[in-house]
Amino acid sequence: DENGYRYYSTSQLETVLLIGKLKWYGFSLDEIAEVLKNPEDNTFILSRIREKEAGLREAAQHYQMLLSLLEKDISNLERGKHIMAYLEQIEVKLVETKPTPILSIRKKMNVRDSQKYMMELMTTVQEKGLTLTADPMSIFHDEVYDPENYDMEDAVAIREAEESTRILEGGLCVMSVLRGAYTELPSVYAKIREWIEEEGYTVSGAPYEIYQTDPSQVLPEENITEIYVPVKK
Question: Which of 5, 27, 95, 224 could be joined to 212 by an S-S link, Cβ 3.0–4.6 Å?
Fold first, then answer.
């Protein structure tokens, strides 16, 4: 009471050390309290530690990607280039697409759940013996991007047309290819929008992306994504 210090008995030292370890791992006070309720439950503690490990690995990958982008910007700035000069290197072109049968799942979703729905579609393809004709895609039906509640349609293109499929309409599209992390997608869309306005076109349908690579199997900078925006004069 005199000095405000907190004292612990020898029997409490293990608990104190455990609290320190969990803080170091990034556990919140509520999460630490939950662990202290089950200090002898190894299975419970292991599950919480694995969750933190997954989060830290994701964060490490994110920061590694940021470092890579920073190094590119630093290199360009040192050579006298503007920090946004990379926009000039984004190639945009007009293409004609063909109608394509697709098997899809459309709903308001958290974009993080997209991979789960893609796996469901792949399972259906295998179970029904369907034939894939292109890489997986996502179609975006909302004009305003809300990552936690977004009207998305995950889809796979297949050869067979059946009751559970629909046709993705073909036609004129402005198209670009992103070779890099998904965080660079806004730059590509900005370049596409700029091209559409300058060339006198208007958007006529829902944009969609075709994923040539699996983000869980390649580094972010090795991702290849095709972006299509339907247009008309």
Answer: 224
